[in-house]
UniProtKB/TrEMBL annotation:
Entry protein name: Cation diffusion facilitator family transporter
Keyword Kinase: no
Organism: Paracoccus pacificus
Annotated SUPFAM superfamilies: Cation efflux protein cytoplasmic domain-like, Cation efflux protein transmembrane domain-like
Coiled-coil positions: none
Main location: membrane
Pfam families, per the entry: Cation_efflux, ZT_dimer
Membrane spanning residue stretches: 12-31, 89-112, 124-142
Keyword Ribosomal protein appears in the UniProt entry: no
Length: 312
C-alpha cells in the first residue's frame, strides 16, 4: 500500500499575512459602517454592517484555521487537522443565517409601517460605503496574489466571501442615493430584503458544503472523474475497483485499489502504483492518496467499476 501526502504549502507566512490582512480590514470596515449607520439610520447600511461584523468573526476563524490546519499529522490526528476549516465554515454559516433573519424581519417591519422611514446624511453614508468597497478591492487583490503563490484554499474561500460582500455595499449606496435624489425611502427596506436573501443563499451553500465534508461526503465529481481517467489509462493497470473519496477542509482523501499482473516483479508493481499516485497528486495537489495493489484476475471487474463510498 502506498500512501502519499502532498508537499507542504509553498509559504505559510504568505497565507498568514492574508489572514492578518483580512482581519485588519474587517475591523476597519466594521468601524466605518458603524459610523455610517449612526449617520444615516439606513437598513441597507445595517445589512452591510452586519456582513462586515460577521466578516470580523470569519476572518478571525479563517486565520486560526490557516494556522491550525497547517499543523502536520500527529499520533492523535493521523489525517491532519483540516476538519477545523469545515467546523469554522459551518459556524460562520449559522451566524450569517441569524443575521440575515434579523435584517429581513426589520426590513419587512419597515415596509409595513404606516410611517415612511427617514434617512439622513446620505452623502456621507455613501462616501463611507464607497471607501469600504475600495478597501475591500485592495484586500481581494492581495488575497488573489497569495492564492496564486500558495494555493491555500482557506484564503481562496475568504477571498470569495469578500467579493460577495461588495453586493451589500453597492446596495447600501443605491438605497442612500435613491432616498436622497428621488425620495424613495422604501428602497432601503427593499434592498435590505434582497441583501438578506442573498446572505441566506450564500450561508446555505457554504454551510451545506461544510456539513457534507464533516459527514464524509464523497469528493467533488471533478475529483472522481480525474482519478477515474488516470486509472483507466495508466500503463500496467489492468483494472481497478473500490474508489473511495472524501473531503476534509481543503484536502481530498483518495483510496483506490488497482489490479496488476501478479507475475511481475514486486518493484515493477510498486513503480506502477507510485507513478499513478504521483500523477493523481500532480492534478489534485494537497490530497492524501492511498493505492492498494491487487492481483488481477479475469473476473467480472471492469476498469470502469467504482464505488465512491467512504469507509474510514
Amino acid at each position: 500500500m502506498n500512501a502519499a501526502h502532498s508537499s507542504p504549502k509553498p509559504d505559510i507566512r504568505l497565507a498568514v499575512s492574508a489572514g492578518i490582512g483580512s482581519l485588519s480590514v474587517a475591523v476597519l470596515l466594521t468601524g466605518m459602517k458603524v459610523w455610517a449607520l449612526w449617520q444615516t439610520g439606513s437598513l441597507a447600511v445595517a445589512t452591510s454592517l452586519a456582513d462586515s461584523a460577521l466578516d470580523l468573526l470569519m476572518s478571525a476563524a479563517a486565520l486560526a484555521a490557516i494556522i491550525y490546519a497547517a499543523k502536520p499529522e500527529d499520533d492523535e490526528h493521523s489525517f491532519g487537522h483540516h476538519a477545523v476549516e469545515d467546523l469554522a465554515v459551518l459556524a460562520q454559516s449559522l451566524l450569517v443565517l441569524g443575521s440575515a433573519g434579523v435584517i429581513a424581519w426589520l426590513s419587512i417591519g419597515r415596509l409595513m409601517s404606516s410611517t415612511p422611514p427617514t434617512l439622513a446624511n446620505e452623502t456621507a453614508g455613501s462616501a463611507a460605503m464607497l471607501l469600504s468597497m475600495l478597501i475591500t478591492f485592495c484586500l481581494v487583490a492581495w488575497q488573489s496574489h497569495v492564492v496564486r503563490k500558495t494555493g491555500n484554499q482557506v484564503v481562496a474561500a475568504d477571498r470569495l466571501h469578500y467579493l460577495s460582500d461588495l453586493l451589500p455595499s453597492m446596495g447600501a449606496i443605491l438605497a442612500l442615493q435613491l432616498s436622497q435624489r428621488l425620495g424613495w425611502t422604501h428602497a432601503d427596506a427593499v434592498i435590505g430584503l434582497i441583501a438578506a436573501a442573498y446572505m441566506i443563499r450564500s450561508a446555505a451553500q457554504q454551510g451545506g458544503s461544510a456539513w457534507n465534508a464533516l459527514m464524509d461526503h464523497q469528493a467533488d465529481p471533478e475529483v472522481i472523474a480525474t482519478v477515474t481517467r488516470l486509472a483507466d489509462s495508466w500503463p500496467g493497470v489492468l483494472g481497478w475497483h473500490d474508489l473511495q473519496t472524501r473531503r476534509s477542509g481543503s484536502r481530498n482523501f483518495i483510496h483506490l485499489h488497482v489490479e496488476l499482473d501478479g507475475t511481475q516483479p514486486l518493484k515493477t508493481a510498486h513503480d506502477i502504483g507510485a507513478g499513478l499516485r504521483a500523477a493523481i497528486l500532480r492534478e489534485l495537489p494537497d490530497s492524501y492518496v492511498i493505492i492498494h495493489k491487487d492481483v488481477w484476475q479475469d473476473h467480472d471487474h471492469t476498469s470502469g467499476e467504482a464505488r465512491n463510498s467512504v469507509d474510514r
